[in-house]
Amino acid sequence: MTFMDRITLFQPLDFAAVALLFVLWVGIGLRVEHPSPKHLSTSLIMASYRQEWMRQMVTREPRIFDAHVLGTLRQGTAFFASTSMVAIGGTLAVIGNAERLAGVASDITLLDHPTIVWELKLMVLTLFLTNAFLKFVWANRLFGYCSVLMGAVPNDPKHPDAYKFAEKAAQINITGTKSFNRGLRSLYFALAAAAWLAGPIPLILAAFCTVTVIWRREFASVSRKILLAS
After folding, report:
1. What is the pLDDT of residues 16-66, one digit of tens each?
2. What gap in Å lies between CA 183 and CA 189, rounded to an integer?
3. Which of 72, 31, 14 is nearest to 198 (CA)?
4. Cα–Cα distance between 16 and 157 in angstroms, integer?
5. pTM for this structure?
């Protein structure tokens, strides 16, 4: 079977649904990271709190609390990275045994597609999972950099480099969090991509549901109102 033969196995609505999935994925990411100045996202609001955290760390003695908080952040990234790796392994295992998946999927969706169709659909899911894994690993690494910079902050608050190093630690912390959030969004859209197994219409609905959930959490959640409260 040639490449063009495989392409013809999909309907135009399939291509439209996948294109919509990626457009919404990129679009919501840009919206969250570059929102309107009058309506900041929760992620950007938290960035200001992270900067304040590093400024307060300069005068805090001892700094065990700060090290513990950062350690908790690293544990979170490590957990999601390992979870993503397990999910990737499981998806690849299913792709390797796609004949059985095709039989089960055909019974559920009443669609009789060749095995290659289900394999390609799972590859889209694997793409999102792989991106999530890479983002979580990089976030973990950045939080490690942040811990080193925190350790480099002089104990004397009056030292001329104290707040300079604290600001560097804050920026690395914010960058690591941005990578972590990107990984989370990839996981969200990986779940949406799984809906393609049921057809293009479920994929479209899942994509819109996913972007709605992300938008609400970033721009209309109770936690955001609390963060903005005077």
Report:
1. 999 999 999 999 999 999 999 889 999 999 999 999 999 999 998 888 999
2. 10
3. 14
4. 57
5. 0.90
